[in-house]
Amino acid sequence: MNINLEVEVVEKESTAIVLLAGEIDAYTAPKLKEALLPFAEQKGILIEVNLEKVNYLDSTGLGVFISALKATKESGSELKLVHVQDRVKRLFEITGLDSIITIDTTVRGGK
Amino acid sequence: MKELELDLENYRNLLNQYITTQDETSLYQAEQFSKLSMQHNISPEEIIHVHIQALRELYPDLPKEVDNSMEFLLEAMISYGLAYQEFQSLREKQLELKSEISVAASMQQTLLSTDKPEIEGLEIGAISVPANQMNGDYYHFVTDYQGTLGIAIADVIGKGIPAALAMSMIRYSMDSFPENQRFPSEILQNLNRVVERNVDPSMFITMFYGLYNPLTSSFKYSSAGHEPGFFYDAKKDEYREIRAKGLVLGVMNDVTYEQFEIKINEQDMVILLTDGVTECRVGDRFIERDEVLDVIKQYAHLPAQEAVELVFKHFERLQDFHLRDDFTLIIIRKNV
Question: Which residues lie in coiled coils (chain B) (predicted)?
Fold first, then answer.
């Protein structure tokens, strides 16, 4: 299967906005990890990950968000997920991760 | 060296034949020669050496410049020879690793094997099939002297060998918990600490733990972020999702798990699974949970073991017999 993940990072002062498009699975997860971890390890950064264009996330992808979350806890930064689609949100709910990661589910221009 | 000399003669004849006729067959034979040389671990610079020898024998009056250039080429090829040697030894190592992994896989199977217990009035079907050599899914049955049945079903995130090793750790920590701490919420709470301390930050484990008491027909359960199973209520003839929210194991140190309890009546079923069942996809399409349930319903009237096997076969067929993820399904039915 040839589906990729596009990662775009916009830095504004102490906020890093990470725009993702595609699928997050065992193949694309390393790319996401590479993008997220450097910010998560820095002090006092708000990392806002936009998942509006992510329609699939598997457990390997969840693992990346967990490592990023752990890193932010240590460095005193914050991880926030925004515009999360229902299918993806369900995974965060089942795993209980929605109780420890800030998730904003309003989809832009959607219902 | 003898063999090489024999080959030299062969090579010289081939070379001569090609130079004079330029026909395709001698080119083809040259290809065969190189394949044979590889089988005999002959390095590229050795072939050039043979080429120089043959050339000198065929053309004793070869211009000195050409002869020198061949020596030059020989030197230039030496690194390729070394790379080739390295490739050979890597290939051997890879074979070794492969056989070690299969030994590890069979050891894992022995370590993690669990017997399906015989409990009067209860029918149990269970299947667990790994996508690769080692299984990151796991289920385990524990019975105690009071006749209660503990059921653990888990999925390690992070695949492959590290995941499988983490599973063995879980299994052995569970065995070490004292008898009086067999309640699902306590077991998950203890395991969470073990996993949090010992496992890589990107790895985590989801687990559902259930405890059935045949005397009271009560089923107590807790979940650590595990894919929800289903409960079949025979009286109402309806399936419900088993909801039990809890955080996956290994993310935070101090987590408490809520414990739930239901009563199991005659012909009721508890259906437990891992996300290898619900994350199954066909081409670009995902299988929805409702579809999974539909397939389970289709076979649910059969004996429990037959049912889980047929559900597995159904999804295996759907995915062209190539599982993307480990697949585990358990059906428990109260018969009396």
Answer: none
Residue B96 lies in a domain: no
Q: Is A37 touching B (CB cutoff 8 A)?
A: no
Q: Does the distance separating the beta carbons of A94 and B158 come in below 8 Å?
A: no
B118 and B64: one domain? no
Instruction: Confirm or reject contact between B243 and chain A (CB < 8 A).
Output: no
Residues of B in contact with A59 (CB under 8 A): 155, 157, 275, 279
Which CATH number belongs to the domain containing residue B11 in this structure?
A: 1.10.1240.30
Per-residue pLDDT of chain B (336 residues; tens, 9 = 90+): 445 555 788 888 889 999 999 888 888 888 888 888 888 888 888 889 989 999 999 999 999 999 999 999 999 988 888 888 888 889 899 999 888 888 887 887 787 778 888 888 899 999 988 877 667 788 999 888 778 899 999 988 766 677 777 888 888 888 887 776 689 999 999 999 988 888 777 778 899 999 999 999 999 999 999 999 999 999 999 999 998 989 999 888 889 999 999 999 999 999 999 877 666 666 666 677 788 899 999 999 999 999 999 999 998 888 776 666 778 999 999 998
Domain of B209, in residue numbers: 114-334
B39/B186 same-domain check: no
Beta carbons of A17 and A82 less than 8 angstroms apart: no
Separation between Cα atoms, residue A90 and residue A96, nearest integer Å: 10
Closest CA to B304 of A42, A62, B312, B65: B312
**Contact with chain B for residue A56, Cβ under 8 A:** yes
Q: Distance between CA A30 and CA A61 in Å, rounded?
A: 9
